[in-house]
Amino acid sequence: MEVVMRADAKVRVESGTESSPRGPGCSLRHFACEQNLLSRPDGSASFLQGDTSVLAGVYGPAEVKVSKEIFNKATLEVILRPKIGLPGVAEKSQERLIRNTCEAVVLGALHPRTSITVVLQVVSDAGSLLACCLNAACMALVDAGVPMRALFCGVTCALDSDGNLLLDPTAKQEKKARAVLTFALDSVEQKLLMSTTKGLYSDAELQQCLAAAQAASQHIFRFYRESLQRRYSKS
Amino acid sequence: MAEVMSVADGRARAARTLLNQLVLPGEELVLPEQEDVDSPARAGEQPLLLNATARARLRVVCGPGLRRCGDRLLVTKCGRLRHKEPGSGGGVYWVDSQQKRYVPVKGDHVIGIVIAKSGDIFKVDVGGSEPASLSYLAFEGATKRNRPNVQVGDLIYGQFVIANKDMEPEMVCIDSCGRANGMGVIGQDGLLFKVTLGLIRKLLAPDCEIIQELGKLYPLEIVFGMNGRIWVKAKTIQQTLILANVLEACEHMTTEQRKQIFARLAES
Fold first, then answer.
1. How big, in percent rounded to 5, are the helix, strand and coil portions of chain B?
2. Which of A85, A142, A190, B249 is the most buried if burial means most Cβ atoms within 10 Å?
3. Cβ contact (<8 Å) for B129 and A186?
């Protein structure tokens, strides 16, 4: 059944009024997650971060075409559909990033010669889209019962021209930022699974962003736990 | 590379403390016997040993949702951790998760739909990643001359004899003595519908009263497949549909709501 879980994160401070650089421990936007909302896929989840919303559906382990089958592990496919227009090259590259993250975490060796398909539909994009897609994909994989060695989450950081670090930026902040970095972290030791960056930044800033993302990911994993706790408390 | 981690490490927790609680993928569980090894100084629960030098090796079975990882158990699915203590050995640990997709397991009784007939084998769709194969000789009283009457589209109730990740699953409609024991082609009419795997397990639990209550409501024939499929048949189509709706709704209803619905149906 559908379980809607909302997390009231700390209140967002407008970056325009903030003068001093923020430290790590910045606030994330309001989260919400709903599981098992679609009847056809084996697992589904909807993840909201502020105004960014992504719907994910997982099918698997299911039949695979002989041309795509891998003899010793599951074939993982990710399909990302943008809100408007046909999927293009940007979507393809994001699909690849999400697929690589999922492959690191899903125990494909338990289901050789099968396919696990993750379909992501962007419902609204207001910044931090890739991180939201990663979170939705993780929740959907858990809902489908696909065996995983850990949970994962996505966190986006933006560095503006003053060197201020912003976690979970909105679309406007991403546009004005000097660099946007997205990390995928695992739940066991907050290790880095995937990182994709765009823009200009120094090595020290990268480490700073990574540390901030690791701190923020604790908050996200705690939210996952509460959300799943709520779901399983009904049965 | 085997790393010895102390129990003080935040990651690994004792399986005993997490029973019937939610566990998430990635968590590591320490078995009771391992706790004694890791912290010998603890007065805690020492197994009673006749031979103090030899540690009794209890055989713990790692069920669905858990994997062995060194000398610990790694949780791979989200759900509630359960434990069953059999007569001998350390017991079985497993994770009770809610799932829709079926993965064939040896010994499971399932309802399949015949999708193809090729030579001596029927291909049966059981809801897994590939169709299972069923030999025409695997029916009671079937010989090369006396072939069973199975057509494409028929429903079959059988059990798996081979079901692992590396091979195509195979099912049969006889037990080890050669008797049908309820298996075989499921008769005409009736309704086949799909529910989640957790609901089937709940309905087939020994202490479940839902089936007895349904039986008091209308006379019915019902077949449960562990792959999430239920076939039900009552005297009229309307009764069959009512039973199907009630079973599908059972998942989300509490006991009181269910009793109310049955009472209301019994009146009408």
1. 20, 30, 50
2. A142
3. no
- Tokens, residue B188: 């005409």
| Closest in A115, A189, A232 to B79, CB measured | A232
CA distance B26 to chain A (A): 4
Please state whether the peptide bond connecting residue B219 to the residue before it is cis, i.e. omega within 30 degrees of 0.
no
Cβ contacts (< 8 Å) between B166 and chain A: which residues?
A: 112
**DSSP E strands, B35-108:** 60-62, 66-69, 72-75, 79-84, 91-96
Question: How would residue B1 be classed by pLDDT, with cut points 50, 70 and 90?
Answer: very low
Give the start-end residues of each E strand in A50-114.
52-62, 75-81
Q: Could you tell me which residue, B72 or A59, shows the higher pLDDT? A: A59
Residues in chain A closer than 8 A to B251 (CB atoms):
1
Calpha distance A171→A177 (Å, rounded): 10
> Which pLDDT score is estimated for B11?
64
Q: Give CA separation, B61 vs A170, B76, B86, B192, in Å.
A: 49, 15, 11, 34
How far off is chain B from A189, nearest CA to CA, in Å?
9
The pair of structure tokens assigned to A75 is 């074939």
Element (H, E) at A217: helix A203-233
Residue B159 has pLDDT above 60, yes or no: yes
pLDDT digits (tens, 9 = 90+) for B74-120: 999 999 999 988 776 668 899 999 899 999 999 999 999 999 999 89
Low-confidence ranges of chain A (pLDDT < 50): 1-2, 8-25
How far apart CA B66 and CA A178 sit, in angstroms, is 45
How large is the ipTM?
A: 0.85
Does B68 touch chain A if contact means CB atoms closer than 8 Å? no
Q: Which two tokens stand for residue B112?
A: 């399949």
């795997």: which residue's tokens?
B197
Max CA distance (Å), chain B: 72
The pLDDT score that the predictor gives to residue B216 is: 86
CA distance readout (Å), A178 to A199, A202, A205:
6, 11, 12
Amino acid at B246: V
- Structure confidence at residue B4 (pLDDT): 36
Q: Nearest residue on chain B to A149, judged by CA atoms?
A: B26
- Contact criterion met (CB < 8 Å) for A1 and B252: yes
**Do the Cβ atoms of B129 and A111 come within 8 Å?**
yes
Q: Which of A155, A143, A156 is nearest to A186 (CA)?
A: A155
d(CA A158, CA B122): 58
Q: Which amino acid is at B236?
A: T
Which of B155, B250, B233, B127 minimizes the C-alpha distance to B198? B250
